[in-house]
Amino acid sequence: MTDLFAEQIPFMKPWLGDEEADAIRDVVKSGWICTGPKVAQFEGELSALVGAKHGVATNAATSALHLALQVNGLQQGDEVILPSFTCMANANAVIIAGGVPRFADIERDTYNLEPRSVEERITEKTRAIMMVDQIGLPANLDAFKALAKKHNLILVEDAATALGSKYKETFVGGHGVTACYSFHPRKLITTGEGGMMMTGDAAFADRARVLRSAGASISDLKRHQAKGALFQEYAESGYNYRMTDMQAAMGLVQLAKFDAIVGQRAEQARLYDDLLAAVDEIAPPYVPSYATHAYTSYCVRVRPSARVGADDIVRRMADRNVSCRRGIQPLHCEPYFQHTMNGLVLPETELAAKETLFLPIFPGLTDGQQRAVIEALKRSVIP
């Protein structure tokens, strides 16, 4: 390792402080640490923030996606079209819900699903489209709503990385489509682990709450608050997908930082954009006119003119004390799916996987650190 940069610059770092610790401590002292009033408050405050009618908090975004598919009516054997350029959690949610993943290609500039590629894959077995707002950039919602309406399909939005982003001036998650957030430490706000399903349909929200609590007709909180004996009923089986009040308390503190986090990431992205103008081999993120990027990740692309590949750049950056990450690996190339792909080729997906990498971006990243990142990048693209 060289001594070019004395300071190690991490890839990501959540903004956590005494406020989160105090909030969790208060919940512990209250004696109510499982799903309770803090979860309900977190659901209500986040729903109000993004303009959603209902929010259902879960233990993970994968759980939220599973519930979203189930409450929308996905049945055993139904096919769900989704990008291959995404997290395995998306495919896992489809499989857990009894569906069959079918992978489509992405747009070159946005890394989001390409509507024509999706339509080409629609068959009599297709029941749903899972639209992913990749790395904080909203997909073209209107195009997919039209496609879903044309073919009578379910539309579920994976907004795991897109909290804080906007599609046509409205926060992702607030358009009425069933959308799911993640609160993993790498995301905009964090509860350690956690997720939330947003929906404009009260019946969907009610059923999701039943399913997340093993199928119980009433919550533990409602049962304990009742005067006299009140017992839950089970009309169907469910899951243990509950968020705890400790997590929700942390989430509420994080929500108080929401505007500051969104603002910092936008400013950091602008500085990166400006600095990258001097690096011919690297292309900054593209943001279409309909979208406001959340910059959960800052994804750059190694241009064809570069003589050093993304893998080598990541290694060279590490030698200069800068942590970067390679782009998303295509799911259709993973061992789990190889026996079902029948030689599937998704050219834009496969090219993006080879040419993209993520630079550090997180609250508290300084201008000086960003300049060091780009200086390291300049030196790393030299053969």
Question: How would you describe this structure to a colleague?
Answer:
By secondary structure, the chain is of the alpha/beta class. The chain has 2 domains: 18-258, 3-Layer(aba) Sandwich (Aspartate Aminotransferase, domain 2), CATH 3.40.640; 259-380, Aspartate Aminotransferase, domain 1, CATH 3.90.1150.10. The protein is built from 13 helices and 14 strands. The protein has helices at 18-30, 37-50, 61-71, 88-96, 115-120, 141-151, 202-212, 220-225, 245-256, 258-276, 310-319, 347-355, 367-380, and strands spanning 54-58, 79-83, 100-104, 126-132, 154-158, 166-167, 170-171, 178-182, 195-199, 282-283, 291-292, 298-302, 325-326, 356-359. The chain has a 7-stranded mixed beta sheet, sandwiched between helices. The protein has a 4-stranded antiparallel beta sheet with strand order 10-12-14-13. Strand 6 (166-167) and strand 7 (170-171) form a beta hairpin. Helix 1 (18-30) packs antiparallel against helix 9, helix 3 crosses helix 4 (88-96) and helix 3 crosses helix 7. The longest helix has 19 residues, at 258-276.
